[in-house]
Amino acid sequence: MTSECDGLMRLCGASEATEDTPLRVERGGKVYAIFRLASGYFVTADACTHGPGSLSEGMVLGEEIECPFHQGRYHIPSGNPTGPPCTVPIRCWTAHVIGGQIMIDPNEER
């Protein structure tokens, strides 16, 4: 579902994302992990870059997500790997909160 707001795609309501518990959302043929941290909302690809782990099933540790498959870690705001065996960053999108909805530009990967 795409919004009429500058080509942004709605992922979920902001209230659906709870602090320290990742949320898995499928939209447009992709799977996203949505995080609500003390510093804001963040959206990453759900798949770990090292193996078959789903990051939305992982454990949030401060600003890091630990993959449930092999316990590798990523810094949620940047997507950079912070713990082995992960070495490749996860894809990230800027989370826009508009009218109580979390939205991203699916073409503006960072």
Question: What does this entry look like structurally?
Answer:
- With 110 residues, the protein is mostly beta strands.
- The chain has a single domain (9-104), classed as Rieske Iron-sulfur Protein (3-layer Sandwich), CATH 2.102.10.10.
- The chain has strands at 9-13, 23-27, 30-37, 40-45, 59-61, 64-66, 73-75, 81-83, 92-93, 96-98, 101-104.
- The strands form three sheets. Strands 2-3-4-9 form a four-stranded antiparallel beta sheet, with no helix packed on it.
- It starts with 8 loop residues before the first strand and ends in a 6-residue tail after the last strand.
Helix/strand layout:
Elements: E1 9-13, E2 23-27, E3 30-37, E4 40-45, E5 59-61, E6 64-66, E7 73-75, E8 81-83, E9 92-93, E10 96-98, E11 101-104
CA radius of gyration is: 13 Å
Structural class: mainly beta
- The helix-strand sequence is EEEEEEEEEEE
CATH homologous superfamily (4th level) name: Rieske [2Fe-2S] iron-sulphur domain
Number of strands: 11
Give start-end ranges of low-pLDDT stretches: none
Share of helix among residues? under 10%
Per CATH, the architecture is 3-layer Sandwich
Largest sheet: 4 strands, antiparallel
CATH classification, class level = Mainly Beta
SS element count, helices? 0
- Structural shape: globular
